[in-house]
TrEMBL record:
Species the sequence originates in: Candidatus Desulfatifera sulfidica
Stated name of the protein: Ferrous iron transport protein B
Pfam families linked to this entry: FeoB_C (PF07664), FeoB_Cyto (PF17910), FeoB_N (PF02421), Gate (PF07670)
Amino-acid positions noted as binding Mg(2+) in the UniProt annotation, renumbered to this chain: 21, 24-25
UniProt xrefs under InterPro entries: Fe2_transport_prot-B, Fe2_transport_prot_B_C, FeoB_Cyto, FeoB_GTPase, G_FEOB_dom, Gate_dom, GTP-bd, P-loop_NTPase
Length: 740
């Protein structure tokens, strides 16, 4: 069976991913482009006996290499040469979306246009003649509604027809005025004569990119031939000086103007008609009158956020209890059916109590991601970014900082790593650095299980309220930190911010299911791989080297003495009358309890003598200022690797030597009954976990994005010191007021 490569490309919010999900369903996977950190999705399907591989390219407005996403999209098209590109266009914003189409045409790529959201366009009184647009552009234009699949069969039929034609790439010529057209012809002559970059790009396209001062093309040109590159750059400089003197603009502005002129000339040929007055308020505009209102908008945002947490905790409570019971059952089963020894200890304390503590929160995480997917797919998250821009400017940040904050967990459940990566699209280096250093303060998906554990154990009556409070606190701390950075080491004025607000849409069940499962599966995979590995390593650190021989012998002697007393009681009991026998039976039970106590004390002593126990104990004189005992210190050390490990390590530590709590209980109950924990300590711990050093993957990402380890080390040190000071203050004040 032949294999065809196809690609989906288009502007952000044009419905590209919705179409991708509809076409591929579960037959997709997420990967990473070689050498960079931008993710891509790839799926497969079979059409007319053809195996088709579809790649969902990053959303982009242009093919000029201003951002990583634009570089990825263009490089994929050049290097992979897909048989056809399906260009998804928002029918209600036709002029803006066609700008990217123009660049596809100039590159000569075989394309099919998917005219998406024609229902939204119709609601806005916009009617588009797809047949006429096909005729004028010279490529198939198929009206579709991606969210319900309308028109997708016709779209894929047209795409397969274009793919089978296998035509060479033929660039479309757009006139850029007399001066630039002459220069383009001159540059093309040089490019063709020297075979300069012709293996990758059409000569006309290369000439245009030089006029647009595309840094990536200029760099490739220098690598190809410095002599030819300098000749071309000299001509471009000459024409740039000329246009600047005569029109006061650079060639790239002229090119953009003429592209839009090309688009307007097409649209004015009866392509678009309006069935009613364009000033009429559309449904999206009506909703935005309320949800983005200067005063009511933030109130609505807080209510929606609170509703998200209420939904998450209410609906997940029962399945979370089921999951906890499953792991308690597994622990009891292993405990009752395996001989005591290192293997049993590892399975119970390292794997079941460790990983089980993290996997137990899968239902909560799933409901959280479902709620976030609804907000994202409906278009509301873009409104959050729009409203937050006004606040961000107060703290010296750019409006585009909002999305990295949200991605990092601004509404809980994100991840700091993609949040850090998302800063690369920001133009201002200082704003980018301030954003990059503060996004780890957000409550990412790794922190949510820890917060949920402690809130559920100590504040079970108001879980949603406390989660919302800690989310808002994360925002406040991050913004204050950004203000400090922007007022000191990263001084500078904020740059202008413009963003697109997509129309509101009803999320599709299929899209929600895919998005929710993708994120939940990433969480499960992390628990089954990274967290499992760290849990076993930390179990080993909490087990070895074990008790010194003399202490182990002392415990064994105590145990043997009690066993002798028990045997003696049994002999006495058999020779006494019934009443005395009952009294002796009680005495025998007390001896059994003493034996259990000896076992637990020995387990705690062994934990203290372990490598992790020694480290945790050595830190205790300092950590006690914040209310943390040595076992908590062990868990916090594990959090440097991954914040989810805190839950698994607490599960392991408090199943190895806690006298007052039953080790078969859920971890939350064990902490609640522990004398080393109370409400004040729980709040102190949550604050420290929220704000101390990012996980090691995030630290590496900060170093890579910042271009130096200096800022990564700064992030670790600054965050940890700040978090500790805050935790100490809360613990000391709380205990002084008697709130524990």
């Amino acid at each position: 069976m032949n294999k065809f490569l196809m690609a989906l490309a288009g502007n952000p919010n044009a419905g590209k991913t919705t179409l991708f999900n509809h076409l591929t369903g579960a037959r997709q996977h997420v990967g990473n482009y070689p050498g960079i950190t931008v993710d891509y999705k790839e799926g497969s399907l079979t059409l007319d006996n053809q195996h088709v591989i579809i790649t969902d390219l990053p959303g982009t407005y242009s093919l000029t290499a201003y951002s990583e996403e634009e570089v990825v999209a263009r490089d994929y098209l050049i290097n992979q040469r897909p048989k056809v590109v399906i260009n998804i266009i928002d029918a209600s914003n036709l002029e803006r979306n066609l700008y990217l189409t123009c660049q596809f045409l100039e590159l000569g790529i075989p394309i099919v246009i998917a005219l998406n959201m024609i229902d939204v366009a119709k609601d806005r009184g916009i009617k588009i003649k797809a047949e006429k647009l096909t005729e004028l552009l010279g490529v198939p234009v198929i009206p579709i509604i991606a969210r319900n699949g309308q028109g997708t069969d016709e779209l894929m039929t047209a795409a397969m027809e274009v793919a089978r034609e296998n035509k060479p790439w033929i660039p479309t010529h757009i006139s850029y005025g007399e001066d630039l057209d002459e220069t383009i012809l001159d540059l093309m002559a040089i490019i063709d004569e020297q075979n300069f970059l012709t293996e990758s790009y059409p000569s006309r396209y290369t000439a245009i990119k030089y006029l647009e001062h595309d840094d990536l093309i200029l760099s490739k040109g220098q690598d190809e031939s410095k002599t030819t590159a300098q000749t071309i750059e000299s001509q471009v400089t000459s024409v740039s000086d000329h246009t600047l003197k005569t029109t006061e603009v650079f060639p790239e502005s002229i090119i953009a103007d003429h592209r839009y002129g090309f688009i307007k000339s097409i649209l004015r040929q009866g392509i678009v008609t309006h069935t009613f007055d364009q000033d009429r308020l559309h449904i999206t505009d009506r909703i935005d009158k309320v949800l983005t209102n200067r005063f009511f908008g933030p109130v609505a945002m807080l209510l929606i956020l609170f509703g998200l947490y209420q939904f998450t905790f209410t609906w997940s409570e029962i399945p979370v209890g089921w999951m906890e019971n499953v792991f308690v059952f597994l622990g009891d089963t292993v405990r009752n059916n395996m001989a005591e020894g290192p293997l049993r200890s590892m399975l119970i304390s390292g794997v079941i109590d460790g990983v089980g503590g993290v996997l137990g929160f899968v239902p909560l995480i799933m409901f959280m991601f479902l709620g976030i997917s609804i907000l994202e797919d409906s278009g509301y998250l873009a409104r959050v970014a729009f409203m937050m821009d006004r606040i961000f400017r107060i703290f010296g940040l750019h409006g585009s900082s909002v999305m990295p904050f949200i991605i990092s967990g601004g509404i809980a459940g994100g991840c700091a790593v993609p949040g850090v990566m998302a800063t690369r699209t920001m133009r201002s280096p200082k704003e980018r650095m301030a954003t990059l250093l503060t996004v780890p303060f957000m409550n990412c998906g790794a922190k949510v299980p820890v917060l949920a554990l402690l809130i559920g154990a100590f504040f079970s009556d108001h879980k949603a309220s406390y989660m919302m409070f800690f989310t808002l606190l994360a925002w406040l701390v991050a913004l204050i930190s950004a203000k400090i950075l922007r007022s000191t080491v990263l001084k500078g004025a904020p740059t202008p911010f413009v963003m697109e607000l997509p129309p509101y849409r009803f999320p599709t069940a299929k899209g929600l299911a895919i998005h929710t499962w993708e994120r939940t599966w990433q969480y499960i995979k992390k628990a089954g791989t990274v967290i499992l590995a760290f849990s076993v390593v930390l179990w080993a650190m909490m087990t070895y080297p074990g008790l010194p021989e003399d202490e182990a012998a002392n415990f064994e002697a105590q145990r043997q003495a009690i066993m002798s007393d028990i045997d003696a009681e049994k002999i006495t009991q058999s020779s006494e009358d019934a009443t005395a026998g009952e009294e002796l039976s009680t005495a025998s039970q007390e001896l059994q309890d003493q034996l259990t106590t000896i076992d637990v004390i020995e387990s705690e002593a062994a934990l203290r003598h372990s490598l992790a126990g020694q480290i945790g104990t050595s830190l205790e004189p300092i950590s006690q200022m914040a209310g943390f005992e040595w076992r908590t210190n062990i868990a916090l050390m594990g959090g440097f690797a991954a914040k989810e490990v805190i839950v698994s390590t607490l599960g392991t530590a408090y199943s190895m030597g806690e006298i007052e709590a039953d080790a078969s209980q859920p971890l939350g109950d064990r902490l609640l009954e522990s004398p080393h924990w109370n409400r004040v300590i729980a709040v102190s711990a949550m604050l420290f976990i929220m704000f101390y050093a990012p996980c090691f993957v995030t630290v590496i990402c900060i170093a890579k994005e910042a271009g130096t380890w200096k800022w990564a080390y700064f992030s670790m040190a600054f965050n940890t010191v700040f978090a500790f000071i805050l935790s100490v203050a809360v613990y000391q004040i709380g205990m002084f007021l008697g709130l524990g």
